[in-house]
Amino acid sequence: ARKKHTAFRKQMQKDGYPPQKIRRVRAAATEIIDLEDSKHIDGAIADQAIAAMKRLAKKDQPFFLAAGFVRPHLPFVVPRKYWEMYERNKIPLAKNQFFPKNMPAVAFGDRSRGGFYELQDYMDYLKAPSPFDASLSVEQQRELIHGYYASISLIDAQVGRILDQLKQLNLDANTIVVLWSDHGWKLGEHNGWCKQTNFEIDTRAPLIIRAPHAKANGEQTRSLTEFLDIYPTLCDLAKLPVPEFLEGKSLKPVLNDPKATVKDAAFSQFHRRHQNKQHMGYAMRTDRYRYVAWVNKETQKTVALELYDHQNDPDENENVVDQPAYSRTVNALDIQLWKQFDRSIYASFKRTP
């Protein structure tokens, strides 16, 4: 793999690619490797977590342990047995391989193309078409989704090993377990791949909490949450003081009742360079709507809006912000959004070199 990567870079140099692009290019986006889990970085991380648990279990005091896995991030380099769990020709493809109707161009951005540039940093996708021009081939789509599935299965196995060890050490009855990811991921939805948009597919991420004696353990909830809520939740469950300055809220009520709610909206934001200007996209998700306001950094003015009605359009395939039937909803959501954000903060935002 290293020899191919080196040869590919040399060929790029001969072909006249700029030095910055050559430096950025990585090896293949997917790879099947014949290694045991412990020889893979994520397997090694699980091994370290298990060793730490064994050591901490011998001490008569509470402990906090975090294990951060790499996958399912690109590149999808995964042991063979996880690839063999799936038949590639049976893997379904995204059904909405198109931009949302009435989507403002800034939502994907002319530079980032909805995060697609990240995929084009891999040598086997260097010349892949932009989402603005065409979809990836069926073969490419299935290869990437296959790699993603295999990566998920690899991590599932490592999480299972850690939880099994927790039980073997008799720690499961009094240990809080939280599993989360840092962002979502496009697998062909909206003709895009990777992340870096304000769409639901990019901003929604897994969050699983298991607390000893919680009444709702093992159940699902539609209650809105943010990762800001993890810290106050842990403090509350561990009977530690919750600092007043925290923006997050304890999810303990939801852990006892899946129908409970602790907040009426979840917020996120992502910056975008579009038409040589910097913008910030401020997003808000309520129980029914996703509302996004795009603000020009220099003028501090809103230049585009998005509204997706999840009751009628869960895949966010149509921006309905300009439809008269939603005018009151837009006004109400806009007021709610700007109670949370201060656009003047972004005006002073400076990118580091």
What do these coordinates show?
The chain is an alpha+beta fold and 353 residues long. The protein is 31% helix and 15% strand. The chain is built from eleven helices and ten strands. The strands form four sheets. The chain has a four-stranded antiparallel beta sheet with strand order 7-8-9-10. Strands 1-2 form a two-stranded parallel ribbon. Strand 7 (266-274) and strand 8 form a beta hairpin. It is globular, with a radius of gyration of 22 Å. Mean pLDDT is 95; it is low at 349-353.
Instruction: Give the end-to-end Cα distance, rounded to a whole number of Å.
Output: 32 Å
Helix/strand structural class: alpha+beta
Strand content: 15-25%
Weakly predicted, low-confidence segments: 349-353
Helix and strand layout, with pairings?
Layout: H1 2-14, H2 19-24, E1 30-33, H3 41-57, E2 76-79, H4 80-83, H5 116-119, H6 138-168, E3 177-180, E4 186-187, E5 193-194, H7 200-203, E6 207-210, H8 230-237, H9 252-256, E7 266-274, E8 277-285, E9 289-296, E10 302-309, H10 327-340, H11 343-347
Parallel strand pairs: 1-2
Antiparallel strand pairs: 3-6, 4-5, 7-8, 8-9, 9-10
Helix pairs in contact: 3-6
